[in-house]
Write a structure and sequence with these properties.
about 270 residues, alpha+beta, Deoxyribonuclease I, Chain A
């Protein structure tokens, strides 16, 4: 059977609900994980998602900042809404979803951006980011008989040289500094996660999911970064049938600066 999971930093779900509706109508993922919803739980647009056919909705939101949501055409069971670094913000949500005769533990993450200065001694936002990623070492890719894991979200780090428009020019820019990319890779390895995007798209190819609002012509300059990720447990990676990065969504009216990423699986 076919099963699809999409991830998208929407940068305000209420502001961009028309884009979400457009995306859901056209691509119909089984599950959509949103980040940076910027919406307290009582104001989340539940009715719009249900009208679109997504009856199963789990949210962890707050006013004006952060927030994650997982919406699905299949039943969801909340596993955890974890707080990291002893800070009460909403950056993680995990659920169970059934597909293809297996139970999938699905993590939805929004990692802190880290501010502008890549020095944890003078920039508390960057320290928070490094500490957050360090604590993610404790998120394993659980697998077993009938059990698999998926981790998606805006992880705010572009780990490979080909995940940024210029490796040399961004070495001292937050999201691609050596301290971040080293910690990021260590965290992925500690959890035994498989990078599904780079399984489907060779590491030698440039791959971006984010383009700054500051660019006068984002498409022409193409100064992007791969900040959004899709990982799985090793026992699910052979079922991956494709990854689609919807670059054109960056050109939609009033877009997010991130675009959706869709992972497709063929499950027996």
């Amino acid at each position: 059977m076919a099963f699809t999971i999409a991830t998208w930093n929407i940068n305000s779900v209420r502001l961009r609900m028309p884009l979400v509706e457009k995306f859901l109508a056209e691509y119909r993922p089984d599950v959509l994980c949103l980040q940076e919803t910027k919406c307290p739980d009582p104001l989340f647009p539940l009715s719009a998602f249900r009208k679109a056919g997504y009856e199963h909705i789990e949210i962890s939101g707050q006013k004006g900042y952060h927030g994650v949501a997982t919406v699905s055409r299949r039943p969801l069971e909340v596993v955890e809404k974890r707080r990291f670094c002893d800070i009460e913000d909403c950056r993680h949500l995990s659920v169970h979803v059934e597909a293809g005769g297996r139970r999938i533990l699905l993590h939805n993450f929004y990692v802190p951006a880290g501010g502008d200065e890549p020095d944890p001694d003078i920039n508390p936002k960057f320290r928070h980011k490094l500490d957050f990623v360090a604590q993610m070492h404790d998120i394993p890719a659980l697998e077993g008989e009938g059990l698999s894991s998926v981790l998606v979200g805006d992880l705010n780090i572009a780990p490979l040289e080909t995940d940024v428009w210029s490796h040399k020019q961004l070495l001292n820019v937050v999201s691609h500094t050596p301290v971040e990319t080293t910690s990021f890779d260590a965290m992925r390895r500690a959890g035994n996660w498989v990078d599904l995007m780079r399984q489907a798209i060779p590491p030698e190819e440039k791959l971006f999911t984010w383009w700054s609002y500051r660019a006068q012509d984002w498409a022409a300059s193409n100064r992007g970064r791969r900040l959004d990720h899709v990982w799985s447990s090793p026992n699910l990676s052979p079922a991956l049938s494709g990854i689609e990065v919807l670059r054109d969504a960056r050109g939609w009216e009033r877009p997010s600066d991130h675009v959706p990423v869709i992972a497709r699986f063929n499950l027996d």
